[in-house]
Design brief:
This is TetR family transcriptional regulator. The chain is mainly alpha-helical. Helices cover about 75% and strands about 0% of the residues. It contains seven helices and no strands. The chain is globular.
């Protein structure tokens, strides 16, 4: 699901106003949240009851995956001149920014809010995060 959306995004990068897109795309995790709620028992097991299994560090694995995709996207943005070519990205630093988002998203899920409240809080988290990314890339 994520790879398909990411590929579409990369192919369309040259045709969008990146800052506007980020600011307007606050609901981009809604399909993922819907999927989580459709498979709630499985996700609860993986996210909150996986100590001692291969899933015990799932937030770290998700963060590493998204970090790689983000670095790829930032490289593409530099290549097509949408962000400053002189910016140097520290992958470790990017990892921590992404982890802060996903760890908070994980915490929202941990509280077992309704799907609607989970979406609302996640959208607000996204809106909170975007200005930081815009500042980093300017």
């Amino acid at each position: 699901m994520y790879n398909e959306e990411f590929t579409k995004y990369l192919l369309n990068l040259e045709n969008i106003d990146i800052e506007k897109s980020w600011r307007e795309n606050f609901n981009e995790l809604d399909p993922f949240i819907n999927y989580i709620f459709e498979n709630k028992r499985i996700f609860d097991l993986i996210l909150f009851q996986s100590a001692g299994t291969k899933y015990q560090d799932i937030v770290e694995k998700i963060t590493s995956f998204v970090t790689k995709k983000t670095v790829c996207c930032l490289d593409k943005l530099k290549t097509i001149g949408m962000i400053n070519q002189n910016l140097v990205f520290n992958e470790e630093e990017i990892h921590f920014y992404i982890y802060s988002f996903y760890a908070t998203f994980y915490d929202i899920l941990k509280h077992s809010y309704s799907k609607e409240k989970t979406m609302l809080l996640t959208r607000r988290l996204y809106q909170f995060s975007v200005p930081g990314w815009i500042e980093l890339l300017s």
